[in-house]
């Protein structure tokens, strides 16, 4: 996950949720998002989709 760009990481998070992948996998992505301080991008993209 460290090699993914920020954008691809966020896209992967949304796709993992959409595909209902394992919660452990989603939690790993969320941890990486937190470590990169990208939580605001999740909220921004979620509001753009609505």
TrEMBL record:
This is Sporulation histidine kinase inhibitor Sda. The gene is sda. InterPro entries: Sda, Sda_sf. It holds the Pfam family Sda.
């Amino acid at each position: 996950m460290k090699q993914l760009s920020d954008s691809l990481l966020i896209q992967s998070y949304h796709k993992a949720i959409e595909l209902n992948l394992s919660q452990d996998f989603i939690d790993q992505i969320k941890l990486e998002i937190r470590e990169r301080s990208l939580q605001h991008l999740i909220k921004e993209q979620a509001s753009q989709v609505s």
